[in-house]
Write a structure and sequence with these properties.
This protein has helices spanning 11-14, 17-24, 28-39, 43-50, 54-61, 70-80, 95-98, 106-124, 140-154, 162-182, 189-210, 214-231, 234-248, 253-265, 273-289, 293-308, 325-338, 342-354, 361-377, 381-395, 402-414, 421-430, and strands spanning 137-138, 184-185. The protein has 22 helices and two strands. It is mostly helical. The protein is globular and about 65 Å long.
């Protein structure tokens, strides 16, 4: 017999809009309060199953404090039997006992298998250790090896969400901080290690942002900015400003645009083309969110010019090398969607996403949500619904809150068209 904890949410609560909204926002205090009121599950039981002190459960339910650690997210999901995808986790092991058996063929089955493996990997990732103790004297060659390690770990972000990677990246950053405190350095190696720390802070900040830790992300970006200044790493300093702009868009659009403009202004003739393209991309997005079509168009043009005029053989930092013409096409489509120009956004997004690999599931789900929104703006409801369904499939099991947040925006716009067959199908998929 399959074990069911006494705190497992009944199906009607898992379908309750207030509960789902609180779960997606990781507002577990609100969840605990609703569970007690509607299901009669007391705080003592919740505390016992979730590994939280009873008085702490009560404080959370009253709105005091938040649950912020990935380990506790997992524990709460298992105690309440909340499917992983609802709160940005990979499918939990117990879901295999209650979910219908998936198809055993085709790419969707392959992706499910990959996600199950990734879910298991996410549990072990935070225990990654360097294979050798840090040296007493830090040389340039040792810093080179750390740079290579950071570049390898960065690739995890291609297929895993911030919920899986945040502690990995934060752990790398903390080890580098410790080395700066305790090591002795050869000429120049301290500056290079400080530059690496600025880079690691940005990657940790990105993972924090991706997993819903907005305050942590902003703090890490500010740290990165300080380290980049100390290391005289102008490209990383520019990128820290661009990250700050990206994270600020939901709070203060004008300030976000100002940060993005400052990031572009700091670029020089020696700034690699992919870095300049990345900075201008983020400026374009900030302008689009702030409903500035002229500024958006100018920034997109500058980003494309940077890529088109890149010198042959120019070395690119690994943290910006992913910015290419396909990525710029996607950003172009996103910007014109935000500006409600579907005739501009749909063709470029459709073409770019047709060649975009499903293995990058989080990003493709996000990008498809903008394509779906563009279809809706153009009045193509059926296409919007089908595209949203594809985004939902890809977002399943990704440890990031952002795909579902974006998809929910599109679903809200689709609901008035519930009589359309494709819309009914995707709404049933979203709210089983």
């Amino acid at each position: 017999m399959i074990y069911q904890p006494p705190t497992a949410l009944p199906p009607d609560l898992l379908a309750d809009e207030d509960v789902l909204r609180a779960l997606r926002a990781h507002d577990f205090g609100q969840v605990f309060r609703i569970v007690r009121e509607k299901a009669g599950i007391n705080y003592s039981k919740i505390a016992a199953e979730c590994g939280i002190k009873p008085e702490r459960v009560g404080q959370l339910a009253r709105g005091t404090g938040r649950v912020t650690t990935f380990e506790k997210f997992v524990q709460i999901a298992d105690a309440l039997r909340v499917p992983g995808h609802v709160i940005g986790l990979a499918p939990r092991p117990w879901e295999a006992d209650v979910a219908p058996a998936p198809s055993t063929t085709g790419p969707s089955m392959h992706r499910r298998a990959v996600l199950q493996v990734a879910g298991g990997l996410a549990v072990t990732l935070p225990t990654l250790h360097q294979s050798e103790p840090p040296p007493v004297r830090v040389t340039d060659s040792y810093v080179d090896r750390l740079h290579e390690r950071t570049a390898r770990l960065r690739r995890l972000d291609d297929t895993l969400g911030g919920g899986d990677t945040f502690r990995v990246y934060l752990g790398e950053m903390q080890r580098t901080k410790a080395l700066l405190r305790t090591g002795s350095f050869s000429d120049g190696s301290r500056l290079r290690l400080t530059s690496l720390l600025a880079e690691q802070a940005q990657q940790a900040g990105w993972a924090a942002f991706d997993s819903g830790r907005g305050r942590d992300a902003a703090s890490l970006y500010q740290e990165s900015r300080a380290y980049a200044r100390e290391a005289q790493a102008s490209d990383l300093h520019s990128n820290s400003l661009a990250f700050l702009a990206y994270g600020m868009l939901t709070k203060d659009r004008r300030a976000a645009v100002a940060f993005a403009e400052e990031s572009c202004a700091t670029a020089t003739e020696r700034t690699p083309s992919s870095v300049r393209a990345l900075l201008y991309e983020r400026l374009a997005w900030a302008c689009a969110v702030d409903q500035q079509p002229i500024g958006t168009d100018q920034a997109l043009h500058a980003a494309r010019k940077a890529l088109d005029e890149a010198p042959d053989g120019e070395l690119q930092p690994h943290w910006s090398a992913w910015v290419d013409h396909q990525e710029l096409d996607i950003m172009t489509g996103r910007c014109w969607t935000e500006l409600q120009r579907p005739l501009r956004s749909v063709p470029v997004l459709s073409a770019a996403l047709a060649a975009f690999p499903d293995e990058h599931a989080r990003d493709k789900a996000l990008y498809l949500s903008w394509l779906a929104e563009a279809y809706l703006t153009a009045g193509e409801v059926e296409e919007a619904a089908v595209t949203t369904g594809r985004a939902l499939e890809l977002a399943t099991g990704v440890a990031s809150i952002r795909p579902r947040q974006r998809i929910d925006v599109v679903l809200a716009r689709l609901r008035p068209y519930g009589e359309v067959a494709e819309v009914r199908e995707v709404l049933e998929l979203a709210d089983p």
